[in-house]
Amino acid sequence: MPCLATIIALAAPRLVIVLLWMFTSWFRGVFHTSIVPIIGVFILPTTVLWYSAVHNWFNGAWTFWPIVGLIVALCIDLGPMRRKRANRS
Fold first, then answer.
1. Which of 11, 40, 73, 78 could lock 46 by a disulfide, CB 3.0 to 4.6 Å apart?
2. Alpha carbon of 9 to those of 33, 53, 67, 77, 88: distances in Å?
3. Per-residue confidence at 3, pLDDT binned at 50, 70, 90?
């Protein structure tokens, strides 16, 4: 089941964020204001999910594996932008 949830989160991170926001307390205490996750849903959804996962699973400790996960999440979110830039030139 956790593998299936991970695959769904990577395939549709915005859907997962909305479902977690509506039906769980996953984001409570993670962000000080609600504007950051709302902007994150549109710009960096996988990174917002990973940031909240580090807060919930690792108690907010940014050690080696959470930082590696953050880099992977940023690559997933910013990867499509790189292809668009390459097509323009």
1. 73
2. 23, 12, 19, 12, 30
3. confident
**pLDDT tens column, 20-46:** 889 999 888 898 888 888 888 899 999
Please answer whether residues 85 and 78 qualify as being in contact, where contact means their C-beta atoms are separated by less than 8 angstroms.
no
CA atoms within a 13 Å half-sphere pointing along the CA-CB vector of 9? 18
Domain of 38, in residue numbers: 2-88
What is the rounded distance in angstroms from the CA atom of residue 77 to the CA atom of residue 58?
A: 22
The rounded radius of gyration (Å) of the Cα atoms in the chain is 14
Quote the CA–CA distance of 55 and 69 in Å, as a whole number: 13
Examine the pLDDT at 65 and tell me if it is beyond 80.
Answer: yes
What's the total number of domains in the chain? 1
